[in-house]
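Thread: flavin-adenine dinucleotide complex, take 2
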Amino acid sequence: MKKTETAVVLSNNKLSEGIYDIVLECPECAAMAKAGQFIEIYPDNGVNLLARPISICEVGEKTLRIVFQVVGKGTELFSGLMEGDSVRILGTCGNGYDLKSGSALLVGGGIGVPPLLETAKRLIAAGSDVTVVLGFRSGSFLSEEFKKAGAKVYIATDDGSVGFKGNVVDLIKSEDLTADTVYSCGPKIMLKFLALHCEERNMPLQVSMEERMACGIGACVGCVVKIKDETAADGWAHKKVCKDGPVFDSKEVCWE
Ligand SMILES: Cc1cc2nc3c(=O)[nH]c(=O)nc-3n(C[C@H](O)[C@H](O)[C@H](O)COP(=O)(O)OP(=O)(O)OC[C@H]3O[C@@H](n4cnc5c(N)ncnc54)[C@H](O)[C@@H]3O)c2cc1C
Ligand code: FES
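Output below.
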């Protein structure tokens, strides 16, 4: 069940240019957090901005960690939060990943990387063999933390500044990486090509869709995606990412 909670900022660090790493003390949300879920953060600055969805990067006993990129007014405001500040959050939101036993391949692109850290930690704790493929335009962040958690890490960058020069799908093909289950989060175009590859290789893939949201609580249709539905007249249903997602089975998503 979702709750509104007043979270206290325990730390705010700049991870790299425009990327911030905040730890929030929020015992109620932390107690129910699952890997792949997100929280809604209210930019309470007197301006009537809607809450912004940000994925849960790590879960502590009473804390949630978020890692985000500054792209507009809301995230700019969050980047200025200081230790001891309070911020209103709604959480935990969405369904998260359905963690399976067996080997796991985690594939993240850019700001889709953070939710995979808690996912990797939980899978490793459950005894899974975890390989992580992280894709960035240039440079990287969080990769050392995946290694510390016990995952085998591969990095792909568009400019070749770190690791493989190219995209994550090309890296997966060139290293012939396979797993019992693939979990992913990143830009839709990356998810689409990963879905095609996983289908060819018969690997089940769960994708987290970070669509633009408005209300964030299922009350508008600001975040719909087309999902297969045999009961619908045309075979498709419009599902809400904030309520029915953000994680879906890749074979059910309309990638057109
Ligand atoms: C389920 C979910 C989880 C998310 N997790 C994270 C996360 O862990 N870290 C992170 O940095 N971001 C994450 N996002 C994206 C984040 O919510 C947006 O970047 C943020 O809401 C932008 O708010 P803003 O006020 O700063 O920018 P705005 O002023 O609202 O927008 C600035 C620009 O960013 C674009 N934009 C806004 N939202 C999105 C989006 N969802 N996808 C692509 N472009 C967008 C707008 O089109 C615009 O061009 C997530 C989104 C969803 C739906
Ligand atoms: S953002 Fe309003 S329904 Fe999802």
